[in-house]
Amino acid sequence: MSHKVGVIGGDGIGPEVIKEGLKVIEAAGVNLEIHDYDLGGERYLRDGVVLPDSVLDEWRALDVLYLGAVGTPDVPPGLIERGLLLKMRFDLDLYINLRPFVVAKSENNEGHDFMVIRENTEGAYAGEGGFLRKGTPHEVATQGSVNTRHGVERCIRYAFELANSREKKHLTLVHKTNVLTFAGDLWGRTFQAVAEEYPSVETSYNHVDAACIYFVENPQRYDVIVTDNLFGDILTDLGGAISGGIGLASSANLNPERTSPSMFEPVHGSAPDIVGTGKANPTAAILSGALMLDFLMEDEAARRIERACADPKTQNGSTSEIGDAIAAQV
Ligand code: IPM
Ligand code: MN
Fold first, then answer.
1. Model confidence over 134-150: pLDDT tens digits?
2. Which CATH entry fits the domain spanning 1-94+255-330: 3.40.718.10, 3.40.50.2000, 1.10.10.10, 3.90.1150.10?
3. Which residue among 68, 127, 233, 261 is least crowded, i.e. fewest CB within 10 A of its CB?
4. Is residue 81 lining ligand 1, measured as CB closer than 6 Å?
5. pLDDT tens digits, residue range 220-249?
6. Active site residue: 11, 95, 158, 176, which one?
């Protein structure tokens, strides 16, 4: 059987790392029917197109989407992020952003893995706010955070299901309930309520600032973390930094009910400073490909790819050399 994949290489190093990801998936023996889409900052600069509704409609007929990175220095900040990436997350209702991390064994650290479940369709990313008297000495800018019971609950429930399926069965809510007393209260109450349905899952709570210290000093305390959109964005960059660097950090934007195609992308950006140099590590994109295969029920191929990526022997050389080494091992 072949899976229908929409491929958006995007800008900068995006196409370079996606090429390696597709190479590795092919080497793993999984058949993909590839539909290529030329979208991103470069495309916008060429003809003003960001994400036509007709493309979104085409995507609905696909199984999954595989994205490299989007963003070009000459495009105003937010235009491609909001118009393409966030539009995909919102319009396709990809409400779970799953980001796994592997902390390597070290002197004072037993090596372990943990996952962050980031709410992906609400919070500060919903774009609530605006200007008043913009450009005058009395200007006002507001930026809200949208938290719905429905949105928070489905995210928390997904995290409980995930934690329940893992060996440690531990779930930590990360928020800032001492200051964000409205949103924090909703998250806290919803977490308590859903916890009752999962008596076998052990739970805890950390403020986000404290979580930053624990990420660096004691990440072993974590198994699954659930948090809001903006905290999850920041915390997962830190997660990348403590687990081998952002060049290894993978992510899945999931619609768990499969009413639209889920999207898989490395956490890193388009890194225009190193484009064409062969310095980009394709491992984050390749591991995002493994998450994609997991979602497509190709677990066995996904495990082989993860094992090859974890082998330090595959982690030397240029973008294509790393891709070749991983492809050879799977
Ligand atoms: C990420 C990125 C995006 C985000 C940007 C590019 C809009 O940083 O996927 O973490 O903030 O979600
Ligand atoms: Mn980010």
1. 999 999 999 999 999 99
2. 3.40.718.10
3. 127
4. yes
5. 999 999 999 999 999 999 999 999 898 999
6. 176
Active-site annotation holds for 237: yes
293 lines ligand 1 (CB under 6 A): no
The first and second tokens of residue 280, run together, are: 């980009």
Q: Are 252 and 292 in contact (CB under 8 A)?
A: yes
237 lines ligand 1 (CB under 6 A): no
| 134 included as an active-site residue | no
| CATH number for the domain whose boundaries are 101-115+122-245 | 3.40.718.10
Ligand nearest to the CA of 238: 2
- Which of 318, 261, 251, 256 has the alpha carbon at shortest distance from 289? 251
Tell how strand 64-69 and strand 262-266 pair up.
parallel
Closest Cα to atom 5 of ligand 1 = 81
For residue 129 the two structure tokens come to 């706010």
Q: Is 209 a catalytic residue?
A: yes
- Per annotation, catalytic residue among 36, 38, 113, 209: 209
What's the pTM? Answer: 0.96
Residue nearest to atom 8 of ligand 1 (CA): 233
